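Help needed: design a sequence for this.
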């Protein structure tokens, strides 16, 4: 199994395991990275763009590495004509997870328990949709 795919699954498992613990602050981080890394894996595995080429694009980008992965995967979704998710839904879903992760990681704003638990469900739904794309 690919190391990127393994990390992606581990992050999703971590988010799920934290759902019922008192340490929910790590959920958005794990939830977001599970989907981002699965997107990266799918791009490479489909032969769309290899990890090395993606790393080059990330290094040259002025938008940040995550933005490169998100944009490349959205293009891949359009090209694949996937029935599990369209590129707009992917963009909305991954960006919602990213915003929550950034809030949890960097901001001095509390996040309610329900939002943390919903984050896990959002990530699982997006993960499954991404995983269905061939």
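Sure. Designed sequence:
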């Amino acid at each position: 199994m690919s190391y990127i795919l393994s990390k992606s699954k581990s992050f999703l498992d971590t988010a799920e395991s934290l759902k019922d613990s008192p340490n929910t602050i790590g959920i958005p981080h794990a939830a977001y990275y599970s989907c981002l890394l699965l997107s990266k894996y799918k791009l490479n595995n489909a032969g769309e763009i290899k990890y090395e080429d993606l790393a080059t694009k990330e290094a040259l980008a002025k938008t940040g590495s995550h933005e490169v992965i998100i944009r490349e995967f959205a293009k891949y979704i359009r090209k694949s004509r996937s029935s599990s998710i369209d590129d707009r839904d992917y963009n909305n879903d991954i960006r919602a997870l990213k915003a929550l992760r950034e809030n949890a990681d960097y901001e001095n704003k509390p996040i309610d328990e329900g939002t943390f638990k919903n984050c896990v469900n959002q990530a699982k739904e997006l993960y499954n949709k991404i995983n269905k794309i061939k």
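The chain has one domain: 3-132.
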